[in-house]
Design goal:
Order of helices and strands: HEEEHHEEEEEEHEHEEEE
Radius of gyration: 21 Å
Mean pLDDT: 78
Number of helices: 5
Number of strands: 14
Helix content: 25-40%
Low-confidence stretches: 175-201
Strand content: 15-25%
């Protein structure tokens, strides 16, 4: 009797796992994933060990389009944000991304539309083959596709960002880490490279230029661990603008 009961419980447990795993895998691959930050390049906003909830797609993108094109903005800041979003998706459309009414048939679009300066993104680094142990990195968006940007710590340098690309940099300007230090860390977690006073040591757009959005895993929305740091990931922008539309 006990043996039959145990067998029945095991069967129910295995059935539950089989039913739960496929949708959980689909959600993780398509909509939301968890990423762990290692390194100090994003301090003080993000710290070593933070676990981030990352949105990997626009869900029902047509609703976003309707919101951005509506005339119901309640403030100048909201209207400016809507106009920025429309400029970004216009540039993204040059790379074949659906726009406007063409979004009606889509339940989701990957990668998400990155239209906000200061957003934090997780992406596959363009130099991942050179530093395979730091394949994925987390950085802040400093410039959007179609803009020109002035990298931090090199005010004489101006870069034009191609459509469907972003310019990303780390937050920390005081860390003395190096590429070699970062490349020795565990590959199972997100790698955020360090940014020193010598920008050439940083592993971000100042090293390899604009990042194509095809490499973007998603936008970090919340810190969910540790509990003491639980909250929304801030969208900080420089006090002095470093990117402009042309």
């Amino acid at each position: 009797m006990n043996s039959a009961s145990s067998s029945s419980s095991l069967r129910r447990c295995l059935t539950s796992i089989v039913l739960i795993l496929p949708p959980a895998k689909f959600i993780s691959d398509t909509f939301y994933s968890l990423y762990r930050v290692q390194g100090s390049s994003m301090e003080p906003s993000l710290q070593d060990g933070d676990i981030l909830l990352v949105r990997k797609a626009d869900i029902l993108p047509y609703l976003d389009w309707k919101r951005w094109t509506s005339s119901s903005a309640s403030s100048y800041e909201e209207e400016e944000a809507n106009q920025t979003a429309l400029r970004v998706i216009a540039h993204d459309a040059q790379s074949g991304r659906p726009i406007g009414e063409n979004n009606v048939g889509y339940t989701y679009l990957h990668p998400p539309t990155i239209h906000q300066l200061g957003a934090v993104v997780v992406y596959r680094a363009p130099d991942a083959e050179k530093y395979p142990s730091s394949e994925y990195r987390v950085k802040r968006v400093v410039g959007l596709g179609g803009q020109i940007v002035r990298p931090r710590e090199n005010w004489h340098r101006i870069e034009r960002i191609p459509s469907f690309s972003i310019w990303v940099e780390g937050d920390n300007t005081n860390d003395e880490g190096s590429i070699e230090d970062e490349s020795e860390k565990d590959t199972s977690t997100v790698k955020s490279s360090t940014t020193s006073n010598n920008y050439c040591k940083s592993i971000d757009s100042r090293t390899y230029g604009p990042v194509c959005k095809n490499l973007v895993e998603g936008v970090a929305e919340r810190i969910i661990w540790p509990p003491s740091r639980w909250g929304v990931v801030s969208t900080d922008t420089p006090s002095v603008p470093r990117s402009w539309w042309t």
